Structure prediction request, 260 residues.
Amino acid sequence: MAKLLEGKVAIITGGVTGIGRAIAIEYLRHGARVAVNHFPDGKSAQLYESLVQEVGDAADALVAVPGDISQPDTGEDLVTQTAGRFGDRLDVFVSNAGICEFADFLTIAPDLVNKTISTNLNGAFFAIQAAARRMATQKPPGGSIIGMSSISALVGGARQTHYTPTKAAILSLMQSTACALGKYNIRCNALLPGTIRTQLNEGDLADDEKRRYMEGRIPLGRLGQPADLAGPAIFLASDMSAYVTGAQLLVDGGLFVNLQ
Prediction:
């Protein structure tokens, strides 16, 4: 197998579960050295240990940097610690960490709104800024930043009124940073997953009737799996996408275009 990320250093936030974990595994398979950020609690630490076991010998190229991504200093610490482990270069930054708790618009509490914005938008902004500073000042400058947006950036969700604006913001952030950072040879693109089976929506998809309805709307006839995002994430991280920036890539099995 050709290794498309041989020698590259990558950081993935929210990298021990779901989509982030799947991307970390494939980045390692393609030769990257990978730092994963996870929330600093016992459950997340256990998930990291299980990731280490899962990747086997590739674990020598894997490191964890725990931290609450909603805190502005976490991104800088993540970049600094990754440099300390893998050298001064950073080639790929995947801003993946996020939360989604369904709630009714009329009764949603301010704490949940603020927590969602702090994690999904503010946390992503400051972590991406820290990564971009490293990429802009290294020799030679350059890198790939991937923001995990969502199909929810393009459509509404009755019980996601606090969540969908954050994902639209990530899409906008990738477009604006593409403009701001192109002069440093930094590419910025957004991935927009459709309905992917992760820990964020497992409760919602436990409803068999709703799950069958969603499957019926997807032209490919199935819900997405976290691994379905790994290939697109490799493409955007690799030299195959050297002239791709400011782009948005839907990974939704055709859900968005199916108006039936």
In short: DSSP finds seven helices and seven strands in the chain. The longest strand covers residues 186-193.
